[in-house]
Amino acid sequence: MFKDNKRTAKGSDTLIGMGSDIQGKLRCEANLRLEGKFHGEIETTGEIVIGESGEAHSTIKGNAIIVAGKVFGDIITEGKLTITASGQVDGNVSAHTLVILDGGVLNGISIMERPAVSRVPSPSPAGKSSKEVPQSEAG
Questions:
Q1: pLDDT at 22 over 70
Q2: What is the pTM of this model?
Q3: End-to-end CA distance of the chain
């Protein structure tokens, strides 16, 4: 009669709906969708979506982040940050991949660093000494 629902608590999504106004620190392992207002810190290992009606006055850390609403604060992700045509970010961003669609707004500094890659000097031709290749420093 009832379907077997195999979703676990870890697989559930978190929704802060339109009309909500929350302050504090939010940490979760699930995906998060914000359609209301949030003041504080947001950190999740899942995807974060700031919907068109969403407004975050926050530092946001997540695996992948989509901004269709407004964010006033810094965003940090090791994944992809997408600012849609209706999205606005007033703050600094650090992301592996940054996508800003036509009409999207970023007022701040963007940092896109890749991990340092160590280089091994190539073998030198006979009779010539090998030169050291400078290593980039992460930092």
A1: yes
A2: 0.74
A3: 58
